Structure prediction request, 292 residues.
Amino acid sequence: MLKDNLYSETLYGTYGQHFTVDQVLFEAGTEHQHLVIFENREFGRMMALDGVIQTTERDEFIYHEMLTHVPLFSHGNARRVLIIGGGDGGMLREVLKHKTVEHVTMVEIDGAVVEMCEKWLPNHSAGAYQDPRLNLVITDGVKFVNDAQACADGSFDVIISDCTDPIGPGEVLFSSEFYAGCKRLLSENGIFVAQNGVCFMQLGEVETTTARLGHYMADTWFYSAAVPTYVGGIMTFAWGAKNPASRNIALDVLTERFRSAGIATCYYTPTIHQAAFALPRYVEEAITKVNG
Prediction:
């Protein structure tokens, strides 16, 4: 991974990317995974887990805005939000920009990720960890969503799974057990979204998520965004909603919700929100293959 001032990503065995390393800021094996944070003159500070780039200072806004604002503006009045993963703090930062949000529970399996990202990637969280609306829980996400004593049924309006790829600690966050727990925790009009990989390289993840998540949600689909760091094409985000109408909010309604929220964005717009649900034919065919 780190050799001769280069960081080489290991997500794919036959294809990849590398970054020059100007300075290693932190590197260690945590209780759960290998964590490294380094500087690159093109992308700024970068964080990787187990050989896979997770986030960079330069383009994190695309990923975090799309995985946050699409479900929250689709819902329109989300008051309680659950974030699974997201230890770098970027998702939390964007969620807390919504004035309707009264409480956020964030469940991260690796406390070292939170600690080191708050220290070395402070612009990601931008003080969000000090917000009184936050309840930070360091535990396994699957265990949390299936623990009836931790949260009652219908506790959250939006659930965001800011997970790593389905390898290592992130693998269980693509399981039927996890989706079942999320369904239990969603309110009547609740929405679930999750990172679902670069579809051109990881089309099998689209098929697996369709089969598993579709068993629990009234509406299952995907939306996309182009994030330069995630090499191989557009990234897909899984979408699951209890109310199928949530995916088809009129543009004028989205525009008014966005205007009223007063949130400044660098990528998200109501128009991009709507367009993001239009998928390439090969992704649609993968979904149809599963659904029949």
Observations:
- The chain has a mean pLDDT of 93.
- DSSP finds ten helices and 14 strands in the chain.
- Residues 60-75 form the longest helix (16 residues).
